[in-house]
Design goal:
The chain is an alpha+beta fold. It has ten helices and 19 strands.
């Protein structure tokens, strides 16, 4: 999934004590060591609001497939079961209750004999849950994009055909959870390395791909553009020269903010906001091989990976929630506003596989992942799975839509108006 530049002043707050995006590194380091002055409150801070609805209020609910979401929800329940019942489902400031509030629904889901039965799935959700409209204050519309799991060609040892490294997490990379130092920065992190007792920025993309890279190579792939987009997706599969297919899963980031190179191409006049997509960016990089490395290096962010066996071909890598992602049933969200494990019914559109007219996408998904570009209350990144169809849809999905969360009946979120 994509990543975005992170901007903001230290300590900004919003409804439900939601935290703002992190401040620049200098301010954050100063905060850790000596405190940071609060900036003025911005009037446009996101405000999470929930409005009770009936299932009949959800456009397309009666026709939407629900069984995939039930399977995804059961996986989230397995993760919840490992946590203390009194712990909050997400940030304690959010209105999604405790693990104990979700335990009856999880017990019922786990006990179902056939979760793939659509009638069973519909009865489960309609009996045990109630829908709530998700909004940013009065604004109900947000952005929905897509991501997928790519497959690359590679080798364990560099050769004439496989020379582009994918790196493992370096031993000296330090990730700092800022919420441990200031409650107002919960959920925000920075990364770097320690030099003479001070946390300093880590190497950039261009430095990590250079001959003096401090990160060990995990595998080598054959195409730098494929590797670049693998970083954006966050995980993928590599088909090795001996025929084995392994998963490279997200294992950290160098701490530099994500820069969308599509914006750079728009600024140059090479693309327009209407035409920019993964496919058009790829086409530009292929047509300009001499300029491509410098453009990709404008994105200083860099992802580190770990190797994992692929236990179930139908599922993706583990998302930020720690559970395997389910195609067309897992959603990446902003955890400042949505807790992992919450079912979310989205009402949006998606691209057609054959580049025909967009088609409605009204689907129940489960919040199970996040990404640096996923910022906001009504903001989602749909996991489309693996293969050409997933790539064709995910790379062009950039559509407005609405979101509705399903909460256990009896759980009444208290707003902070």
């Amino acid at each position: 999934m994509g990543r975005s530049d992170l901007k903001g002043a230290c300590g900004r707050r919003a409804l439900f004590a939601v935290r703002a995006a992190p401040a620049p590194l200098v301010c954050l380091l100063a905060l850790l060591l000596a405190g940071c002055a609060l900036g003025p409150k911005e009037p446009d801070m996101p405000r999470l609001t929930l409005t009770p609805l009936a299932f009949t209020d959800l456009p397309g609910w009666g026709e939407a497939p629900l069984a995939p979401a039930l399977s995804a929800f059961r996986r989230s329940c397995a993760s919840m079961a490992a946590r203390p019942p009194e712990s909050a489902l997400g940030d304690p400031a959010l209105p999604y209750g405790r693990i104990a509030d979700w335990a009856p629904a999880c017990a019922a889901a786990t006990a179902l004999p056939d979760p793939s039965d659509e009638a069973v799935a519909r009865a489960f959700f309609e009996t045990l849950f109630a829908p709530w409209r998700l909004a940013d204050g009065a604004e109900r519309t947000g952005l929905f994009t897509g991501y997928y799991e790519p497959e690359l060609t590679g080798a364990r040892v560099a050769d004439a055909f496989h020379a582009v490294p994918l790196h493992a997490r370096p031993a000296d990379l330090v990730s700092v959870e800022l919420g441990a130092f200031r409650d107002s920065l919960k959920g925000e992190r920075i990364a770097g390395r320690v030099v003479d007792g001070r946390l300093v920025p880590y190497a950039t993309r261009s430095e990590l791909l250079g001959p003096a890279s401090p990160a060990p190579a995990l595998v080598y792939v054959d195409d730098p553009v494929d590797a670049f987009f693998l970083h954006i997706q966050g995980s993928g599969r590599v088909r090795l020269s001996d025929g084995e297919v392994v998963r490279v899963a997200y294992d950290g980031q160098n701490g530099h903010p994500y820069t969308a190179i599509g914006r750079s191409l728009i600024a140059r006049g090479a693309l327009t906001p209407e035409t920019v997509s993964m496919q058009t960016i790829r086409a530009w990089l292929a047509a300009h091989p001499d300029e491509a490395p410098a453009l990709m290096n404008e994105n200083r962010s860099y992802i580190f990976f770990r190797l994992e066996a692929i236990e179930d071909e139908s599922l993706g890598a583990r998302g930020a929630a720690g559970v395997p992602l389910t195609p067309e049933a897992s959603l990446a969200v902003d955890p400042r506003f949505l807790a992992y494990g919450v079912p979310v019914f989205v009402d949006t559109t998606r691209p057609a596989e054959d580049e025909g007219p967009d088609v409605p996408f009204r689907r129940l998904l489960v919040a199970q992942d996040t990404g640096g570009a996923i910022r906001g209350v009504v903001r989602g990144d749909v996991y489309w799975g693996f293969g050409p169809r997933a790539a064709a849809i995910a790379g062009r999905m950039k559509h407005a839509g609405e979101a509705h969360v399903l909460l256990p009946r009896g759980l009444r979120p208290v707003t902070d108006e």
